[in-house]
Design a protein that fits this description.
The longest helix is centred in the middle third of the chain and has 16 residues. The strands form six sheets. The protein has a seven-stranded mixed sheet, sandwiched between helices. By secondary structure, it is an alpha+beta fold. The protein is globular, with a radius of gyration of 23 Å. It starts with 8 loop residues before the first helix and ends with a strand. It is built from twelve helices and 26 strands. A hairpin with a 2-residue loop joins strand 20 and strand 21.
Length: 483
């Protein structure tokens, strides 16, 4: 993150994505023409290598050169395993030509985010998520808070899909995210191994939990065919980051993907900003938060009063948003659909109250410690859920333990759904098992939170089964939050 850049107002708002003088707005490119894609897969699938190859426009050497260009921590470079959720920009010109990620003059220098944003007509934000089972909760949070339009499921072509591949497919489908499957490392892969991997993945895709039909993409015409059917099809592409096989086809598909989340339609709502990270004391600036503009718009300055919270006691801090950055570009205006940084005017004591999972609002700050949700237990075995059961809840940027305080069986006949099964009554009350549908009142265990609106799809990870990865995914049909 950079806070010290300064640009003229003209530079802030206009860039040239093509040499034919098509002037485009950087602000518009980073909101309405920004496709957010979650990249998930097993630990050996090559997620970071693929992102590094796409963003640097250079092939991998087979020993991890591409992933080293984008990894954040030293232990990630040494082990080759991603442990944090990071995002990287891939830019395209108006013609569909990808923006080279390296500087033309200094080949070893990577282009910064602001340089890519100024040159691009369309932006693809690739979210690199962890694949190791030890970091599953980090991956769940990345998908929950990432506002992903699509998901890339990477499968190592030399090995059949693992239980982690199934979890990642369940996770994307429980959030309603269309998926594209990539078979990586096809260079030197035995033909029988690739066929076995495809057969196993086809079984997973056709299972009742996923409900997708696999569709092999081999030509540009195949891309056009499946583009408007991504909610029922799962396109599959064979790629290699060493030889470059399939990468051009993948780039064309990424450029053609339509924008699924229309955040620009929420510009008329009150300003809502989801806090993802905190920088308590940036030299010369003060406290800075980074995150996503979920709704509304904000013009920063001395008169820009906002509310940050909730704190541990449920109250909000009233402060001034002094300045803002979007893709490392200094700007005075941020709008719905953008990832941005905000600098606040807070003293040393108030800075200590900032934490991840907060929100920044322009008006009507309220918080809650309870919410009602209609849930359907989709996955899991060997456990029961009853009153006072504890779950780890992911709702957008909020992640916190919560207790099930009250449970009622839902009659779904009026919705045309099958009757709830697996739920039983015993002396301790209602017991939920896989297949059950119920209305549950949850209470957060530690502190109140701000839940912005209804119709979310939270994920509940039951801690007792985290080690065995017997996690549960829930589909929320309607949510009512108790203030």
């Amino acid at each position: 993150m950079s806070i010290g850049h300064s640009h003229t107002p003209k530079e802030e708002t206009k860039s040239y994505a093509d040499n034919d003088e098509h002037a485009v707005s950087v602000e518009e490119t980073l909101s309405s023409r920004n496709i957010r894609i979650a990249v998930v897969g097993n630990v050996d699938a090559g997620k970071s290598t693929l992102i590094g190859t796409l963003t640097t426009s250079s092939l991998d050497d087979g020993r991890g050169s591409s992933r080293c260009a984008i990894m954040k921590h030293r232990h990630e470079i040494e082990s080759g395993r991603t442990s944090t959720a990071t995002s990287h920009l891939l830019g395209f010109r108006h013609s569909g030509e990808p923006i080279a990620g390296r500087d033309k003059i200094r080949a070893n220098k990577m282009k910064s985010e602001d340089e890519i944003a100024r040159e691009s007509y369309r932006i693809i934000t690739l979210m690199d998520l962890a694949g190791h089972e030890k970091y599953l909760k980090t991956t769940i949070h990345g998908v929950s808070s990432g506002m992903a339009d699509y998901g890339l499921i990477l499968v190592n072509s030399r090995h059949p899909p693992t239980h982690m591949t199934q979890h990642h497919l369940n996770l994307c489908c429980s959030f309603g995210i269309p998926v594209v499957v990539l078979f990586t490392k096809v260079d030197g892969c035995p033909e029988h191994a690739l066929e076995t991997s495809k057969k196993e993945l086809t079984k997973l895709l056709k299972s009742p939990e996923i409900g997708r039909r696999p569709f092999a993409v081999k030509t540009e015409q195949d891309i056009t065919t499946c583009m408007d059917k991504l909610h029922t099809l799962a396109p599959m592409i064979d790629i290699s980051c060493v030889t470059g096989e399939g990468l051009e086809l993948l780039r064309k598909m990424l450029f053609c993907l339509p924008k699924r989340r229309r955040h620009e339609k929420k510009v008329d709502r009150p300003f809502e900003f989801l806090v993802e990270d905190i920088f308590s004391n940036v030299p010369g600036v003060g406290s800075v938060v980074s995150g996503f503009v979920n709704a509304g718009e904000l013009t920063v300055g001395s008169s820009s009063h906002v509310y940050v919270g909730p704190t541990d006691d449920g109250t909000f801090l009233k402060t001034v948003a002094k300045s803002a950055h979007v893709a490392r570009i200094n700007t005075t205006h941020i709008t719905a659909g953008q990832s941005a940084c905000l600098a606040f005017s807070l003293n040393k004591e108030l800075r200590k109250k900032l934490r991840r999972g907060m929100v920044v609002l322009s008006e009507n700050p309220t918080s809650t410690k309870e919410f009602d949700a209609e849930i359907c237990v989709l996955k899991g075995e060997g456990t029961t859920i009853r009153r006072s059961y504890q779950a780890y809840v992911h709702i957008l940027n909020v992640r916190q333990s919560a207790y099930a305080r009250d449970i009622h069986i839902v009659n779904n006949n009026v919705l045309g759904l099958p009757p709830s099964h697996g739920a039983k009554h015993d002396d301790g009350g209602i017991v939920l098992r896989p297949g059950s549908r119920a209305k549950v009142r949850f209470e957060f265990a530690k502190r109140p939170v701000r839940i912005l609106s209804s119709f979310y799809r939270p994920v509940y990870d039951w801690p007792i089964f985290s080690r065995a990865l017997q996690s549960f995914y829930y589909d929320i049909y309607r949510s009512t939050f108790v203030q």
